[in-house]
Specification:
Blueprint (H helix, E strand, L loop, with lengths): L1 H22 L9 E5 L4 E5 L4 E3 L4 E2 L2 E2 L2 E5 L10 E7 L9 H9 L9 E5 L2 E10 L2 E9 L5 E8 L8 H8 L2 E2 L2
Antiparallel strand pairs: 1-2, 2-12, 3-6, 4-5, 6-7, 7-11, 8-9, 9-10, 10-11
């Protein structure tokens, strides 16, 4: 009986890996830049067209800990951007990411249910909602027991799914601990 269960699990894992590999078309990253931050605890590769831009300020009385990347504005083309920000001590109970997400969304009754995936080898929750400027994607992953890394960007409303470049960016995230 246990051999049948093991074989079933093994077959599922191979099929799931195969499906993921097929869904993520190859995007060449050898010419991409690498952003690495010990302060934030991760590194990520990104296209050279995305340039780091400084952001300062506060949110809820706390300094903003974030890094933004954006394309250079071009006439007739939407500006693309990518934001990484850390919410320090936002998970004081040390909940799993899906439990933390559910707890946070109790305050937002119209919040979409999360989907799950793995980012940098860690469980992550994410959702997509349509907004005035396009499809807004937000991904949440635990940096440690109490801190959450949020990755956010907006794509065209006409896009039905995440495009290959942003899928590839997410697949290059590595945590430094």
């Amino acid at each position: 009986m246990s051999q049948k269960i093991f074989a079933g699990v093994l077959l599922f894992c191979v099929a799931a890996t195969s499906c993921w590999a097929q869904s993520l078309a190859h995007v060449e990253t050898s010419e991409w830049n690498t952003y690495r931050s010990i302060k934030f605890g991760f590194e990520v590769k990104h296209p050279k067209s995305l340039h780091e831009r400084g952001v300062t300020g506060t949110a809820n009385g706390q300094p903003i800990e974030r890094v933004d990347f954006a394309t250079t504005p071009e006439v007739g083309k939407p500006q693309e951007g990518l934001v990484f920000y850390v919410q320090r001590k936002i998970n004081p109970k040390g909940l799993s990411i899906d439990q933390w997400y559910a707890d946070q969304m109790k305050k937002a009754p119209k919040a979409p249910p999360p989907k799950t995936l793995i980012i940098g080898g860690r469980p992550a929750a994410w959702y997509k909602v349509a907004g005035a400027f396009g499809q807004n994607y937000s991904f949440f992953v635990s940096l440690n027991k109490t801190d959450i890394l949020t990755i956010a960007f907006t794509r065209s409303v006409s896009e039905a799914k995440l495009d290959q470049t942003f899928e590839t960016i997410l697949s290059t995230i590595k945590f430094l601990d």
